[in-house]
């Protein structure tokens, strides 16, 4: 399938990122096309995998998850099987908002959300510390969110 991310597709994406529930009629007006071509373009972006889904974005603050901690994780075994075991286990911890394998002085970086420091300590003791192949961790508590965004402009 031939696909081009032109200015109109970028406008459609910007509108969908701002509000994925925007009515097609309103979206059509925003981008200057009728409903049928806008619907076709959205379907095309879904088909090529540019749009991978739609979801509700919950407010961690409204859920009482006001504490953000970044955790550097060093593992004792970096063979593929060990990494797969760690990956599978960390995915099961609901308080882990993000986890990345890192090239550098440590192996993984975890972004963890908790209610407060007592909750964080519980998660560290009962969940993070029990992950397979952990050698050591270093934690950094965020004091303030300066920039938080889920998408950058194209």
TrEMBL record:
PANTHER family: LEUCINE-RESPONSIVE REGULATORY PROTEIN. This is AsnC family transcriptional regulator. Gene3D superfamilies: 3.30.70.920, Winged helix-like DNA-binding domain superfamily/Winged helix DNA-binding domain. It comes from Celeribacter persicus. Keywords: Activator, DNA-binding, Transcription, Transcription regulation. The lineage of its organism: Bacteria, Pseudomonadati, Pseudomonadota, Alphaproteobacteria, Rhodobacterales. One of its GO terms (cellular component) is cytosol. GO terms for molecular function: sequence-specific DNA binding. Residues 5-66 form the HTH asnC-type domain.
């Amino acid at each position: 399938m031939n696909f081009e991310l032109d200015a109109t597709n970028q406008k459609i994406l910007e509108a969908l990122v701002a509000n994925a529930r925007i009515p097609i009629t309103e979206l059509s007006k925003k981008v200057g096309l009728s409903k049928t071509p806008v619907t076709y373009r959205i379907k095309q972006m879904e088909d090529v995998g540019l749009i991978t889904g739609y979801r509700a974005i919950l407010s961690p603050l409204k859920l009482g998850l006001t504490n953000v901690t970044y955790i550097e994780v060093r593992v004792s075994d970096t063979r593929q099987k060990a990494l797969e075991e760690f990956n599978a286990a960390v995915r099961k911890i609901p308080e882990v908002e993000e986890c990345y394998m890192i090239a550098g002085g440590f192996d993984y970086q975890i972004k963890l959300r908790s209610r407060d420091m007592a909750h964080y300590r519980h998660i560290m003791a009962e969940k993070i510390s029990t992950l397979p192949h952990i050698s050591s961790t270093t934690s950094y508590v965020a004091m303030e969110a300066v920039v938080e965004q889920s998408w950058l402009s194209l």
